[in-house]
# Entry
Amino acid sequence: MTELFEPTRLGSLELKNRFIRSATWEGIAEDDGHINDEILALYENLAKGGAAALITGYAFVIEEEQPSPKMFGAYDDSFIDAYKPLTQIVHDNDSTIMLQLAYGGSFTWFNTKEREIWGPSAVTNKISGVTPKEMTQENIQRLIAAFGDAARRAMESGFDGVELHAGHGYLLNQFLSPFFNQRGDAYGGSSENRARIISDIFDDMRKKTAPDFPLLVKLNCSDFMGPKGFTFEECKALCTTLDEKGIAAVEISGGPVFKAPRTEKETTFQVSLPADDSYFSEYAKEIARSIEAPVILVGGNRSMETMEKLLEETDISFFSLCRPILCEPDIINKWHADKTVTPRCTACGKCFTPTGNSCIQNREKAPQKE
Ligand SMILES: Cc1cc2nc3c(=O)[nH]c(=O)nc-3n(C[C@H](O)[C@H](O)[C@H](O)COP(=O)(O)O)c2cc1C
# Structure
């Protein structure tokens, strides 16, 4: 019987169990995206918490495009040495770490008036109110190269892999969506064309990293916008393409997950997701059946019983968690000791604050530290 707490492989990586901390923007990096002692302490604590792999909060790959304040950066070679203490501290504490790479695009609230924001087409994002500039061919080629260079930097600084963020309404997700992508060139139109930028980024990251360096992708199983958005059928097709190219794992999420601030005064925003257990499992199950690469299920993983059942009855290989780990960084160790433990996270989604994201239950204390 396959077990949640058994060593296993993810591409070339040995993992001590099947739990992953899913990408979580902490909002405590330096303004230019570099790390600091607070981040080192946070990741040391996360590494000690029991997850086999930690996926960082999203990192911006083009210096002028920073979708959120105090997020990680990966846009120039200064990050190679700068990240070494982070990867080292995680390895020293028996875990592994992957850098998540992203371009926010019009789904962003940070300094939107002061920067040029790219989109597949100039379609206004109704959640943020931002109308991006339609990317030229040159912009697209620059972005592809920027992701490839960031992946190389990640490898050189000791990360165990990188994850491309192509979900949650950000730029790469918008390329996949016929609503946001109305291009008439090779990057728009058919499903295959809308997915081309992701394939091209994968190829560039592969070219610039070692052949066995794990490259992962996070995708929406669906945008839940009907035929106007990226559909489940299209997600399955893209997973097959990426599988054939050698993707190390696919993390299956879904839909636009954030609610925007509703008034000018309200600076925080909320995650808007169901509180049910493992709520994208039906989609992840079907994808896992159709591809060779391991599937990571994210979203609402709260019950050991549900995850054990999914592991036993489906081909899903890994379970990633964000909010429960934000609330209790050692929830994985607690489950290892007693699988009946109920996480304290109630999936309330009120994790965001302007001075660092944290669980509302721990607010009086430092972010993500109990
Ligand atoms: C505070 C916070 C920050 C997040 N930051 C990221 C991020 O940087 N990249 C990403 O792909 N997802 C991000 N997410 C989404 C989570 O990775 C995850 O997909 C979602 O919260 C559902 O999982 P959960 O039910 O375990 O929280 C974030 C979520 C929260 C609550």
Q: What stands out?
A: The first strand starts at residue 8 and ends at 10. Confidence is low (pLDDT under 50) at residues 260-269. Residues 22-25, 57-58, 100, 165, 168, 218, 253, 271, 273, 298-301, 321-324, 347, 351-352, 357 surround flavin mononucleotide (CB under 6 Å). The first helix runs from residue 37 to 48.
